[in-house]
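Table S5 (text form). Sequence records supplied for joint modeling of the two-component complex.
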Amino acid sequence: MANTLFINGKECEYTDEPNLLEVIRKNGFNVPTFCYRPDLTQFGACRMCVVEIEGRGIQSSCTMPPEPGLKIHTNTEKTRRIRKIVLELLLANHDRECTTCEKSGKCELQKYAEEYGIKDIRFAQKKDSEYLPIDDSNPSLVRDPNKCILCGACVRACSEFQGHSVLGFANRGSKTVVQPMAGRHMSSVDCVFCGQCQAVCPTGALTIKSDVDAVWSLVTNPQVRTVVQMAPSVRVALGEEFNLKPGENVIGKLNAALRKIGFDLIFDTNFSADLTIMEEASEFIERLSKGENLPLFTSCCPAWVRYMETQHPELLNHLSTCKSPQGMLSSVLKELVPKYFDGYTKENTYVISIMPCTAKKVEARRAQLVKDGRSETDYVLTTQEIAKMIKSAGLNLAELEPEPNDSPFGLYSGAGTIFGASGGVAEAAVRTAYEFVTGETLENLDFKPLRGVDAASRTKDAVVDIKGNKVKVRVVSTLKEAEKSIKQLQEGAADFHILEVMACPGGCINGGGQPRSCDNSKIKEERAAGLYKEDAQLPYRKSHDNPDIKKLYAEFLEKPNSHKAHELLHTHYKNLFANSYKDLK
Amino acid sequence: MGAKTLNINIKDEQQRAMDAIKAQGLRVLVCNGTGCIANGSNDVIARFKELGADVSVLTQKDKMTIVPTGCHGFCEQGVLVIIPDLDITYVKVKPADVDEIVDSHIKNGKPVERLLYTSPKTGEHIHKNEDIEFYARQTRTSLANCGKINAECIDEAIAMHAYEALAKVLEQNDPDAVIEEIEKSGLRGRGGGGFPTGRKWRFTANNRGGKSYVVCNGDEGDPGAFMDRSVMEGDPHKLLEGMAIAGFAIGSDEAYIYVRAEYPLAIKRLKIAIEQAESRGYLGKNIMGSDFSFEIHIKEGAGAFVCGEETALIASIEGERGMPRPKPPFPANKGLFGRPTLINNVETLANVPVIIRKGAEWFNAFGTETSKGTKTFALTGEVNNTGLIEVPMGTTLREIVFDIGGGIRNGKKFKAVQIGGPSGGCLTEEHLDLPMDYDNLIKAGAMVGSGGLVVMNEDTCIVEVARFFMHFTQSESCGKCVPCREGTKNMLKILEKIVRGQGEMKDLDTLEELALAVKEGSLCGLGKTAPNPVLSTLKYFRDEYIAHIKEKRCPAGVCTALKTIRIEETECKGCTKCARTCPVGAISGTVKNPHKIDQSKCIKCGACLEACPFKAIKQS
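The corresponding structure-token record, covering 1205 residues in total, follows.
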């Protein structure tokens, strides 16, 4: 039922908005925020969203539930004065080297300081001796406490998405900091590098460790051959960096941009998503028939894999032995590109992957994925980084004519493309497993119960009838949800055969490396819709129907789970529990 | 609903307890609160017990019983020994004095004059407790039994009406009537905000039906305030009874007392009290045979000032970092573990039993139009009598400072009081006749707060006072919201600049603007009140700030950086003593010739001032 209240004198309707801020934004007004993130609990700390309510004085609109008849004013002398003082105070305590900051241009502090015209900072600037060391101890994220404004978004993301609390508040008063336990580096605690902390950070305090320069030096080096792959969810998000709508599929434009930048061969991780399904579906059928190591846990998500290795090594036998699609394609490319293409050797071929994900940078450095002394994936760029490369090449993605990718590792099915949304891997696997087991054609390919990327869909269950065999599929996103399923398994109450886990809420479309979307919950739904739309339109919608996949098996891999396939496409895991800070107790 | 018959007759219990006290013979009350223990009260008690005495001659009693009690409030005069049957109060008693008290007074009826309180006004020795000016003007309700009973013995509390009010409400069995009575009494929260207690109970009671909690806020953090500690140490059953009545009224069966871990004696005595009350059936399952069950836990806080803020306190009990949460939701709707929670401070709850027992009318006869009952204050600073006092709301500052407090020490001039702790404000001479209640103090730019009252004389630098409190609040800020975390830090920086003599006039405008933004923009009560000391001193003592800035002069002569120490050439005999005393070698000169201070080296420690035999060294 709709009620009304008054914003700046205008009567405005509201229904089930959780707070005034949402009502304000829905009605075409706005107030600035740092700590408010719609997918996280309200915190009320930054005080930027303060409004004046008649009879109630100054209130933070993000924490105030709407009430009928409230008279709210968003821009009064007082509210603007408080916001300006907040900005001035934050800037006095901030490393203001804006031009060289990774977040420059995307920083919310910079943006509001500009909008509010903060020119003169009257408070004493932070002293050199007050600067804290920067943590760039890992391949994925950089934490610069000197740019932290203590909005607590990262702390909440870590605990509310991953149930993990790698980051927390320490100390009191003006000495308060956000840091990993006991001030350690992020690499020496159980961080899984999902990057969600960075995705919600309003400033340069948490940023992606950039590999852009390294990749530029490869593409500009005539001695080197660069081979590139991109994950499913990149194509429906990258456009946002060029003012296109979320969910708009820009794969053709991306191919064109990559060629213009100078990448030599352009393939697609969607192809190896199909390959993953061939292997994983076969692996599942085998486990099911033997009744071994069930439920099967998917292994595409590197944050999830690291979580298992550090937190639940006793359950590693449940993880699929399949490499992630990134890992599979890099292995295939390193092995076969020199065979298929003239001028390419093992030495001069470099594989670069474009991922929605910060944890993929860590995955690429896994010892298990190093061959002949080199990581099979040489560099991982996130969607954010490739956008920067495209911009610095002087290209406007939106205006480019779409181009096809290269053959034979570029063709993909709809099953491969939906990997990017939570539930997609499971749906793709079911499509193939059904036909593998029954030998019959599956008519209805849409498994609606496995779809959905909003906060209410973080655990989804479905039962698939494969010729009387009821296969129970569980899909979860966020490690916090995953932990609940693990608990059920440990208590003997797990009622599922397959567990698909993606660490980021909603899956890869909302990955830590994607364009920033933390102030709008709907964006991930639009990106997912873009993937399902492509799935519905593609000529092939099942991984095993992909002709190039068939060709790869015929010419090289023989059959799923063959010796050759195992050598190239499967991996093993390591107990990292000893590295865990649990043992410090 | 409907009246209930209980399985305990509280009147019978009272009679039994009073008989037991009578059987103790001559009761010698020795203060055994934290302050007096530090002054050697345990040894005093031990000596009394060692000696024993035949007390029959003088008192017709067959024996003497030494009763360790809670705090009397007059801690600077501790150890206090009160013998009610002899109408005598001894102060500053040392273990070595005990023999004399026993031999001279208890055995032979001759009071020990040198151990009596001496009035700073008249110089007279005072025998009776109620004649001591410190006590004469007080009205004690929440502190009524503190110093009169052995807090570790439930019978002593029962003899003083403990659990009578609880029995009354359980018999009447009408929770709404209890809330009405509290509403009618006009009781307001004693912890700081002054929110009407009955209304808070009503809000929580609106959520009756499911699990709910009563939380007692015993995280007394204001520097110098110790009223809550005194209740917990001196009369814990009063608090437990108040909590049980609150639990009955709102329909809760479980409670927490959040006490700072720095109060070990309070924790010990609360634990003993809870155990004794449970064993007697005043707490626990089916209290006094009624349907009402109530369990009380103790949660020790880790000493963060901000945990006195109710939502931070709740977070702390839940095991989270003690950071305030935005309100709404209010604890009455969603508090501890997400359940409706009634949270009151110790003193508030300690007022509940007497309101129920004697009625709302009795209680609201004390006080002013908007603030009823009595309030405790921790009176400290430059007054003759310092300690814990309880007076009716509306008592004037003059009565407190000059009557109860006995005036300013050493005949100095009154300058100001800082009232309400670090979140309060400074009041001046013009407020001496202001009736102190919640609303008058807020209007004057201060607050009742928890009742800290620091009296300052003419030798106090008001800018330094503001700096001191700002230093406290900025280091105790939880660090969550920007105005409080960064704002208090920068207010402190500006104040530090001013006391160093580096202030500029525009700093005052920045300071004031910042103070207002912190006050209006902060998330919780800590931040919203942190600028009060600065704003009130800027209002009443602006000229002192200006003296620091424009004239580089500290009118009270306190701020070290603004002092100049120089040697009067004509008076210096060249004895070289100052040069030898100076720790930094700032003084030079030859024997029998006037010496000189190098101002660039001088650290203004004042050592030379004291050393000079000819008073030739001057400070300005």
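Note: Chain B has five domains: 22-132, 154-359, 374-457, 462-550, 564-619.
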